[in-house]
Amino acid sequence: MNQTGKSQGELLNAIQASRGMEHINRSHHRTFSLNIFQMNAQELIDIANRVNDPDEGLRLMSQDNREAGDQTHREVTRRVHNFVAAALTLVEHTRVFMREQYANTPVLARFEQKISAELANEPVVKFVQNLRNFMLHKGLPDSEMYLHFQSNPDSHTKGGELTTGIHIRAAKLLEWDGWSPPARAFIKGSGEFVDIRIFAKAYTDKIVAFQDWLKIELNKVHAGDIEELRALQMEMGERFPLPPSMAELAAPPQNTAENEDKYAFTPDRSSALDAAADELLKKVRKIELPDRRDVAFFGERPISGTITDRDMVEEPLFWGFDTAGRHVFTFIYRDDGVFGLDESIFAEIQMLVDGVLKSQWAGKALSRSFIEKITIKWLQSKFKGVESQPFSKAVSTESEEAVKPLEFWAPIAFLEVETSFLLGPAEIAPFSKAKMDALEAKALAGAPASHENISQLFGQMRKRMQGLAAVVYRMEAEPVRIEEEGEALARIAIDLLRFFSPAAANFPAVCANALLGSEVTPTSNLLVLGDTSFNYSERNLLRSVPNWQLPDGVVRQMRPALDAIGKLVRPDGLSHFALSIRSSVTLFGTGATFVNLMERLTYSLSALEAVLLRHSAEPVEFNVAERASLLIGQERVSREDVVRKVREAYRLRARHDIAPLTPFELGSVGTFFRYAHQVVCVALANADTFGTVVEFVAFVEGIKLSHPA
Length: 709
Fold this sequence. Notes:
Elements: H1 8-17, H2 19-52, H3 54-60, H4 66-101, H5 106-118, H6 123-137, E1 143-151, E2 160-169, H7 170-174, H8 181-189, E3 193-195, H9 196-221, H10 223-239, H11 244-250, H12 267-282, E4 285-287, E5 318-321, E6 327-334, E7 337-342, H13 343-357, H14 360-365, H15 368-383, H16 391-402, E8 404-411, E9 415-417, E10 421-423, E11 426-430, H17 433-446, H18 451-465, E12 469-477, H19 479-497, E13 523-529, E14 534-540, E15 548-550, H20 552-566, H21 576-591, H22 597-612, H23 620-632, H24 636-653, H25 663-685, H26 693-706
Parallel strand pairs: 9-15
Antiparallel strand pairs: 1-2, 2-3, 4-7, 5-6, 6-7, 8-12, 10-11, 11-12, 13-14
Helix pairs in contact: 1-10, 2-4, 2-9, 2-10, 4-6, 6-8, 12-13, 13-15, 15-16, 17-18, 19-21, 21-22, 21-25, 22-24, 22-25, 23-24, 24-25
């Protein structure tokens, strides 16, 4: 690449003043008007879709729900006003932008030709633009919410089709003489009524397609400018790299090896840790505690036992308040009193812990609680004059004794596997009889005098664990660290695996797979009392909780899916889209554990929103339903069914009554869960294809352009 020879300041100025940067800034500014239009369009289409949904429309137009219906009608009118206003704003801003920035250029000529050919005389386009003038001069259009039932003449039953929606009487509109010929033609072509949803959607599709075309054309015009900008930016990076301190902040964190032996700190780190520990030791003070015999009253709770000072193996650790009302931590006991740290000083222990964990070997093998325990033990010994070695040496010594190659097992309730298989960094393995026999033999060999107690313990363990699958994780660490990391990893692994359980997409079946002891198998305990009667019933709210069995053949079929979720177990290094899928899969799987329908709907809808919404400011219900239908609907009829089922799910979730679901509603909910499961499966299959949810959503919406309904 040719170097310009400019100074750093000159290069920065050149980048900011470049035609490429000017184009990028102008393009960004232009998105504001487009965003105003798109958001208003989405809001109008969303509420129009709601009214056009027969179930929702019927509810809004019922006498019992009159206030909600009236407010919805008012809201539709408000959104029509905002829609046409935003439409004209975008038209004017785009026209002014092009004439100011591209006067007498070929791209302006192509722009005006495109408008003349596709928009200038398009009936729906002229209608929306003229509607803005109508509302300025004549007021709000007289819209009507309608309900229409058409019986089926070919049916021997009383069936038919119910339609609802909101429209404007064409005759009232035609009384105004300000309509252009194309707009008047659109009104007349609509028949007796102009449907708000139809014209809003048709106009929006045409304008968004036109704006996309314009964006591509302008990028072609400025292709050379953008290339020039990139060249300047590359030269800046090559000739003026960030200084080391800034580069370290800007770069992603890296796990760089230190020049230190295992279980030892570098001299600089040792000195810093020892100095900080010595300063902390100086802040240990005598604590005056209030008389603990001052109690409000003596309760009647049974006392299981009394502990004396001679029974304590270690000094007790106590959080409480001293006589001055300060929150304190006491951990040293001598004949001359009790000693400890104020709460604010205790926080400095966490700084020591952080300092230890910055060492690579410690960060991999030690838990915070392990280091905290060493710190307190060192302070106790040092304060009493027993400890002679510095703090860093104490940590090294204790760590070398505690860190070993360890294996963590977490049994999974209601899951059985034939043989082991990998799931990301973990393994799903059978807790077999042979494994249990080996563990019992090892325990008996280590404590032969406790044969009876050990056999009794393993008898209980066999009843609870033997034959179940378990999450297995191996690492070299001290016991608390592998337990903490292993449990966290096991929970997310089970959450992800649960997504593929037979119950996940088959409502009302419920999935009970969880860490053993955390499974939820709810029961009801109910009493019905009368003057002379008494009835008590206890029943399991789950009809049955069958074991989920995974034979080797099924695991082989699931291998691509298992590999996909295995990549999501650890969040480190995942893209934004992969993290969103991770949340979506775990939310959906967690929802399958609930008996309560509303809880399950809440989790499942949240799972869809995690992968189908660009951001929280988007209209939720409309976009989730529309994008789900595009992703899994194969033709117009199936897309409409997906939309209907998703919207019914949102409506049921918001329902306030406690009446049980009708058979029709139960069937609809079951179909919704299957649709939602398919959507998340498609997202999971594309975890490596897209970097962000925005990219994925753009792909989904591209389906509409390539396969219009």
